[in-house]
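Why this split exists: single-chain examples teach little about how molecules sit against one another. For that reason, every record in the complexes split bundles all components of an assembly together and asks for one structure covering all of them. Below is a record exactly as it appears in the raw files.
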Amino acid sequence: MSNAAQNTATATAATTKNSSTNAWLSLLLAGVFEIGYALAVGGSEGFTVLTWSLVAVVFFLLTLYALSLALRTIDVSIGYAVWAGIGAVGAAVLGPLFFDETLTVAKGVWLAVIIVGVIWLKLADRTKPAAEAVAPAPSAGRLADRADAVRA
Amino acid sequence: MHWLYLAVAVAFEILVAIAAGKAEGFKNRKWTSITLASGAAATFFLSKALLTFDVGVGYALWTSVAGVGITVLGALFFGQRLNLHKAIGIVLVIGGVVGLQLSGSA
């Protein structure tokens, strides 16, 4: 892409880009909060340990808040997929660090299958209403790429 | 017993998804309350299940089986279509759960 074209594109996209960056930051934060929630719920031992229980409640509210912020901009299905994926992978990897647990190869492989399954499932909803709204964008992008290729 | 706790936690998590959908961005008070109450109940029973399950295992089982439940209920009662994409996801989750169980990791 020529510099001039790039600058115009960047300028027009600037406002949407900012809100989209913030939304993705919120989503990543929500994922991190969700890991904290999972670990704290585990550590609460059936809500008999006070500190872990309070931490769980705080993370529960934080993850809900951050997720709802992110989903104002990001497509719901993509948001849920990323959020659930970060939470599940994080809990599986960090669980053994915090508790008396082991992550064996068999466990890791089957957990990966489950997590890929749930991410895949969450993404499936995108094919309903969002597909129609989003459909023109990729083709426009592809056209722009092709124009760039010709220019280059 | 931990499988029963997990099942109850999953049922409440499915209710969270349904209620959150009706809460209109948390503007509808009644459904927002139901969302939060179900979330609290789901969390409580998840913590009971996690007394036995590893955190990573129990958490993954919980979200993924709830995800399958939401998809299946959506197809049965909320007029959503069960396409090949969703079917693959369901098969992956169920396969993973069975594999986890058969390998003695759950």
